[in-house]
């Protein structure tokens, strides 16, 4: 049996000793190495994919790359080329893992290549930035980052251990890696937070009993971005977007905003989507701002923990949210329904919660009726979002657009419990 292949991304003009050490450990761990060297200063030789090939992938020579004279613009070209040659290598000989080491420049290039590969391909970045500044390097992909501890500059008793551990970790993952094969089960994406956990669990269990694969995303910023990315990349049968706090945070400069594209990808592709206004009773701000006489412009708030504070939305805030979603929903190319629980939008917005305002859900529903497109099926349910009745209403809405996947009334009754 042929050995699995690991793509090693290291620039030898500054890290030749580290590249040789990593190669040796990967090979000793039982995998073959394809070394991608995106060096600019000098080609040290020995790499399966040399610097000149990286430059050629963007139609330039190394001399022309150097002549750009700006490290950021040079980085852009070499990163673009690295992504292209990495995929060309993968088409020729399937890659079962990716390992890279670097400082800020090497981490940027290495993780851009990693993010361009599918979910499931093992990806490990050993980096001087792994102890804090990771969001841009991980993105929405399954990139693991390992703190280099020392600078990537020579070998010492600590760096040898770190590099060896990283090499053996990637080799082990590569040996067990199998490319993704589409499930026969229909894929349904669901959003949630802990404050709508009860509803989500009943929905998930019901859909799984129906024969679906269900992926759940925690909507604290990256969760929503990941949901959007998977909706764009994979064959998704339906989306149950029942936690929209990231949209609220986008409107109020909250810390869990996930961008203006939130809630647009699935409906733009025509994927059947069921919305619920879960967690729009608050937006999320840093707890350090919860001080003084009237923080958050006098709104009610609940300090969730030392990092996050839930700030209660007002009537005006909810109307703003409805107006925003009306614009989003204009772009729908497939069936869309929007279910509103009149009893409250999260566990905070309940008789046991700290942000309960029972008069507001009906106001929000009325605003939605006035502004939502006629193409959206808008329904109200006389229940709290975490009540079984509301979860069952969501299940019914999903099943209505996916009749072919359900397992019949007996399974539905069992899932409804």
Defining key terms:
417 residues; alpha/beta; six-stranded parallel sheet; five-stranded parallel sheet; 15 helices; 14 strands; 17% strand; elongated; disordered C terminus
- Order of helix and strand elements from N to C terminus: EHEHHHEHEHEHEHEHEHHEEEEHEHEHH
Roughly how many Å is the radius of gyration?
Answer: 25 Å
How many runs of DSSP E, i.e. beta strands? 14
SS element count, helices: 15
With strands numbered from the N-terminus, the spatial order across the biggest sheet is 7-6-8-9-13-14
Structural class: alpha/beta
Mean pLDDT, rounded to whole units? 94
Q: Major β-sheet, in short?
A: 6 strands, parallel
Uncertain spans, ≥5 residues at pLDDT below 50? 406-417
Task: Tell me the helix content.
Answer: 40-55%
**Approximate strand percentage:** 15-25%
* Morphology: elongated
**How far is the N terminus from the C terminus?**
49 Å
What can you see in these coordinates?
Helix 1 (12-28) packs across helix 7. Helix 1 links the parallel strand 1 and strand 2. The protein has helices spanning 12-28, 51-56, 62-67, 71-92, 104-115, 135-138, 157-176, 197-209, 222-233, 245-252, 265-269, 315-329, 360-371, 388-401, 409-416, and strands at residues 5-9, 32-36, 95-102, 123-127, 144-147, 187-192, 213-218, 238-241, 273-275, 282-286, 301-303, 308-312, 336-341, 376-381. Mean pLDDT is 94; it is low at 406-417. With 417 residues, the chain is of the alpha/beta class. The protein is elongated, with a radius of gyration of 25 Å. The chain contains 15 helices and 14 strands. The chain starts with a strand and ends with a helix.
């Amino acid at each position: 049996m042929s050995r699995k292949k690991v793509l090693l991304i290291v620039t030898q003009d500054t890290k030749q000793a580290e590249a040789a050490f990593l190669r040796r450990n990967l090979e000793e761990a039982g995998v073959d190495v394809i070394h991608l060297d995106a060096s600019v200063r000098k080609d040290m030789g020995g790499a399966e994919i040399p610097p000149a090939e990286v430059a050629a992938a963007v139609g330039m020579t190394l001399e022309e790359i150097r002549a750009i004279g700006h490290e950021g613009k040079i980085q852009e070209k070499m990163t673009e080329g690295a992504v292209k040659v990495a995929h060309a290598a993968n088409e020729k000989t399937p890659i079962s893992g990716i390992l890279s080491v670097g400082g800020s420049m090497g981490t940027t290039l290495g993780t851009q290549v990693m993010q361009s590969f599918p979910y499931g391909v093992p990806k490990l970045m050993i980096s001087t930035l792994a102890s804090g500044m990771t969001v841009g390097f991980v993105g929405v992909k399954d990139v693991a980052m390992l703190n280099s501890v020392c600078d990537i500059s020579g070998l010492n008793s600590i760096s040898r251990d770190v590099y060896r551990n990283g090499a053996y970790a990637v080799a082990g993952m590569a040996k067990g890696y199998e490319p993704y094969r589409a499930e026969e089960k229909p894929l349904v994406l669901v959003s949630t937070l802990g404050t709508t956990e009860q509803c989500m669990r009943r929905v998930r269990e019901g859909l799984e009993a129906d024969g679906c694969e269900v992926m759940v995303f925690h909507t604290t910023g990256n969760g929503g971005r990941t949901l959007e990315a998977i909706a764009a990349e994979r064959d998704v049968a339906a989306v149950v977007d029942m936690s929209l706090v990231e949209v609220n945070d986008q409107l109020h400069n909250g810390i869990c905003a996930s961008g203006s594209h939130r809630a647009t990808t699935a409906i733009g592709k025509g994927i059947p989507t069921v919305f619920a206004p879960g967690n729009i009773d608050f937006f999320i701000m840093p707890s350090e701002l919860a001080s003084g006489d009237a923080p958050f412009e006098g709104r009610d708030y609940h300090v969730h923990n030392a990092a996050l504070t839930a700030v209660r939305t007002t009537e005006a805030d909810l109307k703003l949210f409805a107006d925003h979603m009306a614009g989003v929903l204009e772009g729908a190319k497939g069936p869309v329904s929007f279910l509103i629980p009149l009893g409250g939008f999260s566990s905070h917005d309940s008789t046991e919660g700290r942000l309960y305002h029972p008069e507001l859900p009906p106001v929000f529903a009325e605003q939605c009726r006035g502004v939502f497109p006629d193409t959206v099926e808008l329904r109200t349910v006389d229940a709290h979002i975490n009540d079984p009745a509301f979860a069952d209403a969501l299940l019914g809405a999903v099943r209505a657009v996916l009749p072919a996947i359900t397992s019949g009334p007996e399974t539905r009754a069992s899932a409804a419990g």
